[in-house]
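User: Could you write out the 3D structure of this protein bound to adenosine-5'-triphosphate? I've included everything you need below.
Assistant: Certainly. Input first, then the structure.
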Amino acid sequence: MLSIKNLHASIEGKEILKGINLEVKPGEVHAIMGPNGSGKSTLASVLAGREDYTVDSGEITFKGNDLLELEADERAKEGVFLAFQYPIEIPGVTTTNFMKTALNKIREHKGLEPLDAVSFLKMMKEKMKLVEIDQALLSRSLNEGFSGGEKKRNEIFQMAMLEPTLSILDETDSGLDIDALRIVANGVNKLKNEDNATVVVTHYQRLLDYIVPDFVHVLFDGKIVKTGGKELAHKLEEKGYDWIKEEAGVA
Ligand SMILES: Nc1ncnc2c1ncn2[C@@H]1O[C@H](COP(=O)(O)OP(=O)(O)OP(=O)(O)O)[C@@H](O)[C@H]1O
């Protein structure tokens, strides 16, 4: 589904990603961990198509197409969901209206008719139940005055509504409390199926107690220096990152 080959990327002339290789198949959950400044958020931002990052070399293909050719909104229409793509506050636009527009844009791209009001409301109700979000939140202006946890819940709700093929969640510095951790984890678990995949960037081994990734990758100085299963996250929690640096010869 997603294939990253020898990806090098920089910001303001500084090379951050120094040869990333990653293969994500349908049905898989991948966790990206690593010390501060190793490039985790940069990787998520490059996948999102954020303009301040320059891809210097390498390839990213998504469902066989060149992802780097696509603008951020085109990536969304192709089924890539980036959790921090819509954190903006939009006064006067309710989450409900925002979701309706976003959803119908994706449907239009797929050659489908826009959802009528009744079907849209039915879908909203189903997904609200799934991610346990309060109706009141959806009637408020998008993200305006939302607490951190409410923003998180809203993000997972957006993910549920848009039914993406690939979700990229950057939880690195979002100050998740234990409830927000559960919201993210439950959302990912409930939305997981054999046709979609999730890449979650995290510092928290705790998050992975709830999500259970198929693969854990450790990023260090712009490269994936180790890949393992969920037990690798436990080992990191216990031992820190030094042993990995030594093992990878990058200490
Ligand atoms: N706008 C920028 N200008 C210069 N350097 C930047 C910029 N944005 C990021 N960097 C640098 O890129 C490196 C990687 O940052 P990134 O945010 O990807 O790391 P991270 O692994 O997500 O870190 P953390 O765990 O602390 O969130 C850091 O050294 C950071 O200072």
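DSSP finds ten helices and twelve strands in the chain.
User: Perfect, thank you.
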